[in-house]
Amino acid sequence: MVLWNFWHCCLWHTKWWAMVASFGELIFSVSLFWTGAVLSNTVHVIVSGMVFLVLIHGGPAAATMPPKPLLKSLQYAVTTSFGSICYGSLFTAAIRTLRWEIRGIRSKIGSNECLLCCIDFLFHIVETLVRFFNKYAYVQIAVNGQSFNRSARDAWELFQSTGIESLVAYDCSGAILLMSTILGGLITGTCMGVWTYFKQSDKAVMVGSTSMLMGMILVGLTVVVVESAVTSIYICYAEDPLLIQRWDPEFFEQMSEALHQRLQYRSARARQILNGRLDHLPHTSSI
Description:
2 domains; single chain; mainly alpha
Protein backbone atom coordinates (compact mmCIF):
# COMPACT_ATOMS: atom_id res chain seq x y z
CA MET A 1 0.00 0.00 0.00
CA VAL A 2 2.85 2.43 0.86
CA LEU A 3 4.68 1.66 -2.40
CA TRP A 4 1.45 2.11 -4.37
CA ASN A 5 0.83 5.56 -2.84
CA PHE A 6 4.45 6.61 -3.39
CA TRP A 7 4.32 5.57 -7.04
CA HIS A 8 1.03 7.34 -7.63
CA CYS A 9 2.08 10.61 -5.97
CA CYS A 10 5.57 10.86 -7.44
CA LEU A 11 5.18 9.68 -11.02
CA TRP A 12 1.60 10.03 -12.09
CA HIS A 13 1.73 13.81 -12.69
CA THR A 14 5.18 13.78 -14.30
CA LYS A 15 5.04 14.40 -18.02
CA TRP A 16 7.97 12.24 -19.07
CA TRP A 17 6.99 9.36 -16.87
CA ALA A 18 3.32 9.19 -17.84
CA MET A 19 3.47 5.84 -19.63
CA VAL A 20 5.89 4.37 -17.13
CA ALA A 21 3.67 5.55 -14.29
CA SER A 22 0.58 4.01 -15.91
CA PHE A 23 2.30 0.66 -16.29
CA GLY A 24 3.68 0.83 -12.77
CA GLU A 25 0.30 1.73 -11.35
CA LEU A 26 -1.17 -1.28 -13.12
CA ILE A 27 1.47 -3.57 -11.62
CA PHE A 28 1.06 -2.16 -8.13
CA SER A 29 -2.74 -2.40 -8.42
CA VAL A 30 -2.46 -6.08 -9.25
CA SER A 31 -0.11 -6.59 -6.31
CA LEU A 32 -2.47 -4.72 -3.98
CA PHE A 33 -5.52 -6.79 -4.94
CA TRP A 34 -3.39 -9.94 -5.01
CA THR A 35 -2.10 -9.38 -1.48
CA GLY A 36 -5.62 -8.85 -0.16
CA ALA A 37 -6.88 -11.98 -1.92
CA VAL A 38 -3.96 -14.07 -0.63
CA LEU A 39 -4.58 -12.99 2.96
CA SER A 40 -8.30 -13.66 2.71
CA ASN A 41 -7.85 -17.06 1.06
CA THR A 42 -5.17 -18.04 3.57
CA VAL A 43 -7.67 -17.47 6.38
CA HIS A 44 -10.19 -19.48 4.36
CA VAL A 45 -7.81 -22.45 4.05
CA ILE A 46 -6.93 -22.28 7.76
CA VAL A 47 -10.59 -22.38 8.79
CA SER A 48 -11.33 -25.14 6.27
CA GLY A 49 -8.50 -27.23 7.67
CA MET A 50 -9.79 -26.72 11.20
CA VAL A 51 -13.32 -27.76 10.22
CA PHE A 52 -12.00 -30.86 8.48
CA LEU A 53 -9.97 -31.86 11.54
CA VAL A 54 -13.01 -31.44 13.77
CA LEU A 55 -15.23 -33.47 11.45
CA ILE A 56 -12.80 -36.29 10.75
CA HIS A 57 -12.09 -36.78 14.47
CA GLY A 58 -15.75 -36.54 15.50
CA GLY A 59 -15.55 -33.26 17.43
CA PRO A 60 -13.08 -30.86 19.06
CA ALA A 61 -13.10 -32.83 22.33
CA ALA A 62 -12.33 -36.20 20.73
CA ALA A 63 -9.43 -38.20 22.10
CA THR A 64 -7.92 -38.60 18.64
CA MET A 65 -7.86 -34.85 18.03
CA PRO A 66 -4.24 -33.75 17.46
CA PRO A 67 -2.77 -31.16 19.83
CA LYS A 68 -2.83 -27.54 18.67
CA PRO A 69 -4.99 -28.11 15.57
CA LEU A 70 -5.09 -24.39 14.75
CA LEU A 71 -1.30 -24.25 14.62
CA LYS A 72 -1.19 -27.33 12.38
CA SER A 73 -3.76 -25.84 10.01
CA LEU A 74 -1.88 -22.54 9.94
CA GLN A 75 1.42 -24.28 9.23
CA TYR A 76 -0.17 -26.30 6.42
CA ALA A 77 -1.73 -23.18 4.86
CA VAL A 78 1.45 -21.08 4.81
CA THR A 79 3.75 -23.90 3.65
CA THR A 80 2.30 -26.76 1.61
CA SER A 81 -0.79 -24.96 0.28
CA PHE A 82 0.61 -21.44 -0.01
CA GLY A 83 1.62 -21.82 -3.66
CA SER A 84 -1.88 -22.95 -4.65
CA ILE A 85 -3.39 -20.09 -2.64
CA CYS A 86 -1.23 -17.50 -4.42
CA TYR A 87 -1.93 -19.05 -7.82
CA GLY A 88 -5.70 -19.06 -7.33
CA SER A 89 -5.73 -15.55 -5.89
CA LEU A 90 -4.03 -14.19 -9.00
CA PHE A 91 -7.16 -14.71 -11.12
CA THR A 92 -9.33 -12.65 -8.78
CA ALA A 93 -6.68 -9.94 -8.54
CA ALA A 94 -6.39 -9.67 -12.33
CA ILE A 95 -10.16 -9.36 -12.80
CA ARG A 96 -10.46 -6.76 -10.05
CA THR A 97 -7.65 -4.74 -11.61
CA LEU A 98 -9.35 -4.79 -15.00
CA ARG A 99 -12.61 -3.62 -13.45
CA TRP A 100 -10.75 -0.85 -11.61
CA GLU A 101 -9.09 0.28 -14.85
CA ILE A 102 -12.45 0.26 -16.68
CA ARG A 103 -14.02 2.43 -14.00
CA GLY A 104 -11.08 4.82 -14.29
CA ILE A 105 -11.59 5.08 -18.04
CA ARG A 106 -15.32 5.67 -17.56
CA SER A 107 -14.60 8.66 -15.34
CA LYS A 108 -12.27 10.24 -17.92
CA ILE A 109 -14.24 9.89 -21.15
CA GLY A 110 -17.79 10.80 -21.97
CA SER A 111 -18.37 8.72 -25.09
CA ASN A 112 -19.03 4.98 -25.22
CA GLU A 113 -19.76 4.99 -21.51
CA CYS A 114 -22.60 2.52 -22.06
CA LEU A 115 -20.20 0.04 -23.68
CA LEU A 116 -17.73 0.36 -20.81
CA CYS A 117 -20.57 -0.10 -18.33
CA CYS A 118 -21.58 -3.33 -20.06
CA ILE A 119 -17.97 -4.57 -20.05
CA ASP A 120 -17.67 -3.73 -16.36
CA PHE A 121 -20.86 -5.67 -15.67
CA LEU A 122 -19.55 -8.70 -17.58
CA PHE A 123 -16.30 -8.61 -15.62
CA HIS A 124 -18.36 -8.38 -12.43
CA ILE A 125 -20.20 -11.59 -13.40
CA VAL A 126 -16.90 -13.32 -14.21
CA GLU A 127 -15.41 -12.19 -10.89
CA THR A 128 -18.44 -13.49 -8.99
CA LEU A 129 -18.20 -16.89 -10.69
CA VAL A 130 -14.44 -17.11 -10.12
CA ARG A 131 -14.79 -16.24 -6.44
CA PHE A 132 -17.70 -18.68 -6.05
CA PHE A 133 -15.79 -21.66 -7.40
CA ASN A 134 -12.50 -20.56 -5.84
CA LYS A 135 -13.83 -20.78 -2.30
CA TYR A 136 -14.85 -24.40 -2.83
CA ALA A 137 -11.56 -25.17 -4.54
CA TYR A 138 -9.67 -23.87 -1.48
CA VAL A 139 -11.58 -26.29 0.72
CA GLN A 140 -10.33 -29.11 -1.53
CA ILE A 141 -6.82 -27.72 -1.12
CA ALA A 142 -7.17 -27.75 2.68
CA VAL A 143 -8.74 -31.23 2.77
CA ASN A 144 -6.84 -33.14 0.09
CA GLY A 145 -3.69 -31.05 -0.39
CA GLN A 146 -4.06 -30.95 -4.17
CA SER A 147 -2.99 -28.28 -6.63
CA PHE A 148 -5.35 -25.43 -7.40
CA ASN A 149 -6.27 -26.63 -10.91
CA ARG A 150 -7.05 -30.15 -9.75
CA SER A 151 -8.94 -28.88 -6.69
CA ALA A 152 -11.13 -26.62 -8.83
CA ARG A 153 -11.87 -29.49 -11.23
CA ASP A 154 -12.64 -31.89 -8.38
CA ALA A 155 -14.93 -29.35 -6.71
CA TRP A 156 -16.86 -28.89 -9.95
CA GLU A 157 -17.17 -32.65 -10.49
CA LEU A 158 -18.22 -33.09 -6.89
CA PHE A 159 -21.01 -30.57 -7.36
CA GLN A 160 -22.19 -32.29 -10.52
CA SER A 161 -22.12 -35.83 -9.13
CA THR A 162 -23.67 -35.30 -5.70
CA GLY A 163 -26.23 -32.58 -6.41
CA ILE A 164 -24.96 -30.53 -3.46
CA GLU A 165 -25.36 -27.37 -5.57
CA SER A 166 -29.11 -27.64 -4.99
CA LEU A 167 -28.45 -26.95 -1.31
CA VAL A 168 -25.95 -24.19 -2.04
CA ALA A 169 -28.43 -22.47 -4.35
CA TYR A 170 -30.90 -22.09 -1.47
CA ASP A 171 -28.28 -21.16 1.12
CA CYS A 172 -29.13 -17.85 2.82
CA SER A 173 -26.06 -17.68 5.03
CA GLY A 174 -24.20 -15.39 2.62
CA ALA A 175 -27.01 -12.81 2.60
CA ILE A 176 -27.31 -12.97 6.39
CA LEU A 177 -23.57 -12.49 6.86
CA LEU A 178 -23.56 -9.56 4.42
CA MET A 179 -26.40 -7.90 6.30
CA SER A 180 -24.52 -8.50 9.55
CA THR A 181 -21.46 -6.76 8.13
CA ILE A 182 -23.49 -3.75 6.97
CA LEU A 183 -25.42 -3.60 10.24
CA GLY A 184 -22.21 -3.74 12.27
CA GLY A 185 -20.76 -0.87 10.25
CA LEU A 186 -23.92 1.21 10.59
CA ILE A 187 -24.10 0.70 14.36
CA THR A 188 -20.43 1.57 14.83
CA GLY A 189 -20.63 4.63 12.58
CA THR A 190 -23.84 5.90 14.18
CA CYS A 191 -22.55 5.53 17.73
CA MET A 192 -19.23 7.21 17.00
CA GLY A 193 -20.91 9.93 14.91
CA VAL A 194 -23.36 10.80 17.69
CA TRP A 195 -20.59 10.79 20.30
CA THR A 196 -18.40 13.05 18.13
CA TYR A 197 -21.33 15.40 17.42
CA PHE A 198 -21.58 16.29 21.11
CA LYS A 199 -17.80 16.70 21.40
CA GLN A 200 -16.85 18.33 18.07
CA SER A 201 -19.83 18.71 15.77
CA ASP A 202 -17.76 19.77 12.74
CA LYS A 203 -15.99 16.39 12.64
CA ALA A 204 -19.02 14.17 13.22
CA VAL A 205 -19.45 13.15 9.56
CA MET A 206 -15.79 12.32 9.05
CA VAL A 207 -15.50 10.31 12.27
CA GLY A 208 -18.82 8.55 11.65
CA SER A 209 -17.86 7.53 8.10
CA THR A 210 -14.44 6.30 9.16
CA SER A 211 -15.92 4.39 12.09
CA MET A 212 -18.53 2.77 9.83
CA LEU A 213 -15.80 1.59 7.47
CA MET A 214 -13.68 0.23 10.32
CA GLY A 215 -16.70 -1.48 11.84
CA MET A 216 -17.53 -3.18 8.54
CA ILE A 217 -13.92 -4.35 8.21
CA LEU A 218 -13.80 -5.81 11.73
CA VAL A 219 -17.17 -7.52 11.39
CA GLY A 220 -16.14 -8.72 7.93
CA LEU A 221 -13.12 -10.50 9.40
CA THR A 222 -15.44 -12.51 11.63
CA VAL A 223 -17.84 -13.11 8.76
CA VAL A 224 -15.05 -14.61 6.63
CA VAL A 225 -14.45 -17.24 9.30
CA VAL A 226 -18.14 -18.17 9.48
CA GLU A 227 -18.48 -18.27 5.67
CA SER A 228 -15.41 -20.50 5.38
CA ALA A 229 -16.83 -22.90 7.95
CA VAL A 230 -20.16 -23.12 6.08
CA THR A 231 -18.37 -23.75 2.78
CA SER A 232 -16.24 -26.46 4.37
CA ILE A 233 -19.28 -28.25 5.75
CA TYR A 234 -20.84 -28.40 2.28
CA ILE A 235 -17.70 -29.86 0.71
CA CYS A 236 -17.13 -32.35 3.53
CA TYR A 237 -20.75 -33.48 3.29
CA ALA A 238 -20.36 -34.01 -0.45
CA GLU A 239 -17.06 -35.85 0.02
CA ASP A 240 -18.23 -38.14 2.83
CA PRO A 241 -21.63 -37.64 4.52
CA LEU A 242 -20.51 -39.88 7.38
CA LEU A 243 -18.20 -37.08 8.56
CA ILE A 244 -21.22 -34.92 9.32
CA GLN A 245 -23.12 -37.88 10.80
CA ARG A 246 -20.36 -38.67 13.30
CA TRP A 247 -20.07 -35.01 14.26
CA ASP A 248 -23.79 -34.18 14.64
CA PRO A 249 -26.40 -36.84 13.70
CA GLU A 250 -29.33 -34.43 14.01
CA PHE A 251 -27.71 -31.88 11.71
CA PHE A 252 -26.88 -34.69 9.28
CA GLU A 253 -30.52 -35.72 9.14
CA GLN A 254 -31.59 -32.14 8.47
CA MET A 255 -29.09 -31.73 5.64
CA SER A 256 -30.01 -35.08 4.11
CA GLU A 257 -33.73 -34.29 4.26
CA ALA A 258 -33.20 -30.85 2.71
CA LEU A 259 -31.03 -32.30 -0.07
CA HIS A 260 -33.60 -35.02 -0.77
CA GLN A 261 -36.39 -32.44 -1.03
CA ARG A 262 -34.37 -30.21 -3.36
CA LEU A 263 -33.47 -33.09 -5.63
CA GLN A 264 -37.08 -34.25 -5.74
CA TYR A 265 -38.24 -30.74 -6.60
CA ARG A 266 -35.64 -30.43 -9.34
CA SER A 267 -36.60 -33.80 -10.83
CA ALA A 268 -40.31 -32.92 -10.75
CA ARG A 269 -39.61 -29.54 -12.32
CA ALA A 270 -37.53 -31.10 -15.10
CA ARG A 271 -40.24 -33.71 -15.71
CA GLN A 272 -42.88 -30.97 -15.91
CA ILE A 273 -40.87 -28.95 -18.42
CA LEU A 274 -40.21 -32.04 -20.54
CA ASN A 275 -43.89 -32.98 -20.58
CA GLY A 276 -44.81 -29.43 -21.54
CA ARG A 277 -42.44 -29.51 -24.49
CA LEU A 278 -43.74 -32.88 -25.61
CA ASP A 279 -47.31 -31.59 -25.49
CA HIS A 280 -46.41 -28.78 -27.88
CA LEU A 281 -44.89 -31.11 -30.45
CA PRO A 282 -47.07 -31.68 -33.55
CA HIS A 283 -48.93 -34.98 -33.44
CA THR A 284 -48.21 -37.23 -36.39
CA SER A 285 -50.76 -39.74 -37.52
CA SER A 286 -49.64 -43.22 -38.37
CA ILE A 287 -49.82 -44.20 -42.06
